[in-house]
Amino acid sequence: MSITPEQLKEITDEPLLAVLATVNPSGTPQATPLWYHYDGECFVVTCYAHRVKVRNIRQNPNVVLVVVDSVNNGKGLIIRGVAEIVEEGAEEATVVNGIKYLGEEQGRKAAEGLNAMGSRVALRIRPEKIIYGD
Fold first, then answer.
1. Are 50 and 57 in contact, with CB atoms under 8 Å apart?
2. Are 45 and 125 a contacting pair, CB within 8 Å?
3. Which of 20, 103, 108, 122 has its CA at a distance of 20 to 30 angstroms from the CA of residue 27?
4. Can you tell me the distance from the alpha carbon of 102 to that of 87, in angstroms, rounded to the nearest whole number?
């Protein structure tokens, strides 16, 4: 089912957990639950630079991001796209994600803690196809 810009904004504004699937060098899938935000162009997640998903994306940038609204009958998004690893701006993106999921005060505190624990990168996922529905 295709999605309208209004539906995309509605679902991506909600603090719904996403699952990012990457491909291991062996060809097996690697899936990770995480926070994200949509900036109007790309889906943005952040993580520590040494994580498996980052190594996988360096080898194969093709990813799938799944966002499911488990409260409203499982409506969700399946985003097939290409991920880009971006080092600059990762701390700010971590703050944006923290605020989305925890609110202003708690989100900033959580992001501050995450940013202090090591080098972070942003993964910008440019959608090639978005599937909406159940």
1. no
2. yes
3. 122
4. 24
How distant, in Å, are the alpha carbons of 23, 37, 57, 71, 87 from that of 13? 27, 8, 26, 15, 24
N residues, the chain: 134
Q: Which two tokens stand for residue 124?
A: 């910008």
Q: How many CB atoms lie within 10 A of CB 95?
A: 19
The amino acid at residue 126 is R
Q: In a structure prediction context, what are the per-residue pLDDT tens digits for the chain, which is 134 residues long?
A: 678 888 899 889 999 999 999 999 999 999 999 999 999 999 999 999 999 999 999 999 999 999 988 777 677 899 999 999 999 999 999 999 999 999 999 999 999 999 889 899 999 999 999 998 75
